Amino acid sequence: MAKIIVFNNDTDRMETYYRGESEAMPYNTNGTLRVREFRGSSKSNILWTTKRTMQSWNSQRYLFGAPIPVGFAFKRPYEGGHGNQSQHYAGVAFDVGQTLTSSRRTALWNSAKNSGVWSYVEPISLTPTWVHWDKRFRYTCLFNRRISNTKKRKHKQLCVNSTR
Ligand SMILES: [Zn+2]
Question: 2 near 35, Cβ under 8 Å?
Fold first, then answer.
């Protein structure tokens, strides 16, 4: 059983879920993303992500129209990984397609690049055996907003921009 903390971008609140490893992630539709898939190799008892990231997954899965194998998604900083890690630590990045054929992986990369769903899709040249995509998110926005109500609107604007 994993404890999953989800930042709900629509209500600006943290939500806590308890899910088994074979259950779907919160906000996932049609069971296309299991907890164990989002976890990947991470041993962490607590996982976190954002509602927007899960919705982006749903959109990407629908657009691709076929199962998307997930090698890695969530990671803690001490669990290592490839070059572009900070978004994995924030729970808003995926490394997918490891078990696809090269041509299907390229099709997945093109689907992700053209979907407009993700903030960033890493170039194929940097990810020869997987596809990295993420939904950029700055947790500092969240904490800054809690500090001062008078600055709330300004920070909210920054956060809205950073989560696209
Ligand atoms: Zn990655």
Answer: yes
Say how many Å lie between the CA of residue 132 and the centre of ligand 1: 4
Q: What separation in Å is there between the alpha carbon of 1 and the centre of ligand 1? A: 25
- Residues 36-56 as b/e (b if ≥16 CB within 10 A, e otherwise) read ebbbbebeeeebbbbbbbbbb
Q: How far is the CA of 130 from the centre of ligand 1 (A)?
A: 8
CATH code, residues 2-135: 3.30.1380
Domain boundaries, the chain: 2-135
For 42-73, what is each residue's pLDDT tens digit? Answer: 999 999 999 999 999 999 999 999 999 999 99
